[in-house]
Amino acid sequence: MSDCCAVSKGAEQSLACGADQTPLDWFEHMIDNCLEYAQDAQASGHPIVGIMCEFTPRELILAAGALPVCLCGGSAAMVEPAERDLPTNLCPLIKSTYGYHVKRENPFLEMASLIVAETTCDGKKKMFELMAQTRPMHVLALPQKQDDAGAAEAWYGEMRRLKEALETCFHVEITPCALREAIGVMNRERRLRRDLAGLMRQENPPLTGRQLLQFKSTISGIPADLAMYKQALDELRKSTARDCLSSRVRVLLTGVPLPHEAERVLELIEDNGGLVVCQENCTGLKPILDDVPEDAPDPLRTLADYYAHLPCSVMMQNERRLQALRKLAPEYRVDCIIELVWHACLTYDVESTRVRRLAKELNLPYLRLQTDYSPADSARLAARIQALFEMTRDNAQAGHTQ
Amino acid sequence: MRYFAGVDAGSRAVKIVLLDADGVVVERGAADQGAAQVPMIDALYARMLTEHNISPQSLGGVIATGYARNLVTMADTVRTEITCHARGVRHVVTEARSIIEVGGQDSKFLRLSPRGGVTDFSMNDRCAAGSGRFLETVAQRLQCSIDELGALSAASMSPAEITSTCVVFAETEIIGLLAAGCLPADIAAGVQGAVARRVAGLTMGRVDEPVVFTGGVALVPGMASLLAREIGCPVLVAPDPQFTGALGAALLARSGANSEL
Questions:
Q1: Does B90 map to a domain?
Q2: Block means of pLDDT (10 residues each) for chain B, length 261 residues?
Q3: In which band, very low, low, confident or very high, does the pLDDT at A16 lie, cut at 50, 70 and 90?
Q4: Which end of chain A lies in a sparser environment, N or C, as judged by fewer CB atoms within 10 Å?
């Protein structure tokens, strides 16, 4: 643990070069920054639109002159208030999001003129039904067999209806030109975050997985955020490698997202000798692996095509996730795979069988961790993580001596 | 003479194994866990050394394991129970390919390569169903000791159906069964079957033979045969099963010291 602290200090110092405020400092205050930005934007006539999932195209919202704000709950404290209406045995992300709704404690949700939700999973769907009783909501019907004839057309129809809903709601016209511009902004953001993540491919990465996770924002397209991503990237590319990180076990973390405040499992992995070099989830690489073509004749269709193909576990067959893992594992030279599943997240839970089989095929040690936002099982999770790392190291050693 | 020690600070008991330089077991010691764990571990360790006239300076390595492993003051390093049980079991059953370990508060399933390395493992989740704690709670309710539970269930002609997967709810279920006139023997047999099913569930049908059953619960009469029935293959009980974790830790301390020479 002591070397972990040393590492973060080292990286902060390197990121501090030539700037009053380091990019890490900036994203440390991400919520405050976003709040200030949202308040200013709202005051100058830009509405706030809450989004609930990576399937929602932020580009359309930006093109309508509005701000897309992610409303996924990561706070453990918001779980209990949600249980007033929701069952105990439900995913903590859904409950925490709903807890904020009940307690009215998410300022972005309170500022939102519209919520764009989607039918990703059953738990979310039914929670949205409750939330929509008191909040303005537009729901996207997500086709769950991505490659079926008709799926692309159905999703394109959903994009058209969302465009119309935004235009009606905010009395604007979303022009192809505005849409292309928004695609450009989002591509830039995706590229910067993807390049930052790509630094983890190095033998001695210049930052930890926890620090990488810090480089994200609840509102997309904030110019100051993009500038900070760029600054971080420039500094980290120049920074000297940290030998102490090279001895860590390189982990590919896959499965459910880790919303703001729900970073506990990643911290446990890195506090126990691991380095999360690759995050194949919605708060990591999953939604930023590709760019949206910017010069297509119908940008709305391009957008529909792009978003329909996210490798989420609600999809059937979700071959794209396995293909992504197959590609990422050697690219990031991972030593093992850890799959995180939130309690009662049925789709990721069931799909973990396929990921376990893939890990076996790739000859990588695999550990599945199922938990929620409560820290009650941290010691038990730590023991499993340590055992995985002992197993990974022992097997590597045995392989060398063979 | 140099010695090596493994300290397994488990949830219900602390187990210590002392080895000599040749890897021969000098002494095994155990004590029940309490609230003041550190002085208790220290006292057990000191007593074992004194009994064999071993000075603490002649210890060539001490490894701690078990959930309280970080409280073991005399340890040079810590290893998880997974690694230690694998090492300990392979020492006593050299050909072991699967290990089922059921301890005080959790249960584990490990698969080993032909060379003895751990290839994968699974552990029970947040609750104590499928652990020694479950059997203990039931024994208390039936007013017998955990050791007597096996003998009691052996007398059962028709094991009760225990379906709760939570210890607290299972206790409620048992109270209901007792109230309905169910025999304690049938309840004891039902509970043992429930624990065996729960533990067998950890294997997810991926058992390689031979299978070794270890941990304190392996000492409870009847558990091994119930487990064998549930997983569908023979189950060997490790000799001194409550000590395989400490033994593995001591062996790792010895091989670690030897590799440094």
A1: no
A2: 94 94 96 89 96 95 94 95 97 96 91 94 77 88 88 91 80 90 92 91 90 95 94 96 97 86 52
A3: very low
A4: C
B205 within domain boundaries: yes
Q: Is A314 exposed, middle or buried (0-12, 13-18, 19+ CB in 10 A)?
A: buried
Residue B81 contacts A, CB cutoff 8 Å: yes
Q: What is the pLDDT of residue B58?
A: 94
Are the C-beta atoms of A72 and A259 separated by less than 8 Å? yes
- DSSP per position, B157-205: SS-------SHHHHHHHHHHHHHTT--HHHHHHHHHHHHHHHHHHHHTT
A393 to chain B: which residues are within 8 Å by CB?
A: none
Strand partners, B102: B107
B126 falls within a domain: yes
What is the predicted pLDDT for the residue at A270? Answer: 98
Helix, strand, coil distribution of chain A in percent, nearest 5: 55, 10, 35
Choice among A12-16, A31-35, A146-150, B77-81 with the minimum mean pLDDT: A12-16
Claim to verify: residue B198 and residue B256 sit in the same structural domain: no
* Cβ distance of A390 and B106 shorter than 8 Å: no
Q: How far is A340 from chain B (nearest CA, A)?
A: 14
Q: What is the pLDDT of residue A1?
A: 34
Mean pLDDT of A216-235: 96
Nearest to B117 among A376, A386, A395 (CB): A395
Q: Does A380 touch chain B (CB under 8 A)?
A: yes
B220 and B251 share a domain? no
Nearest to A391 among B67, B115, B118 (CB): B118
Q: How confident is residue A401, by pLDDT bands cut at 50, 70 and 90?
A: low
Task: For A65-79, write each residue's pLDDT tens digit.
Answer: 999 999 999 999 999
Kindly report the nearest CA distance between residue B119 and chain A, in angstroms: 7
In a 13 Å sphere around the CA of B92, the CA atoms on its Cβ side amount to: 24
Q: A392 exposed, middle or buried (CB, 10 Å; 0-12, 13-18, 19+)?
A: buried
Give first-to-last CA distance, chain B, whole Å: 15
Q: Within this chain, do residues B76 and B136 fall inside the same structural domain, yes or no? A: no
Residue B56 is assigned to a structural domain of this protein: yes
A105 touches chain B (CB under 8 A): no
Other CB atoms within a 10 A radius of the CB of residue A352 amount to 22
Based on the fold, state whether residues B225 and B123 are members of the same structural domain. Answer: yes
Number of Cα atoms under 13 Å in the Cβ half of residue A299: 20
* B115 and B229 part of one domain: yes
Q: What is the domain-level CATH number for residue B53? A: 3.30.420.40
Residue B16: beta bridge partners? Answer: B7, B29
Q: Which residues of A touch B105 (CB under 8 A)?
A: none
Averaged pLDDT score across all residues of chain A: 93
Number of Cβ within 10 Å of residue A333's Cβ equals 14
**In total, how many domains does chain B have?**
2
Residue type, B225: S
Phi, psi (deg, nearest 5) at residue B12: -105, -25
Q: Are residues B217 and B254 in the same domain?
A: no
Which chain B residues have a beta carbon less than 8 Å from that of A377?
126
Domain enclosing residue B119, as ranges: 95-237
Q: Looking at the domain that runs over A29-178, which CATH code has it been given?
A: 3.40.50.11890
Q: Does B11 touch chain A (CB under 8 A)?
A: no
Q: Looking at residue A397, what is its pLDDT?
A: 84
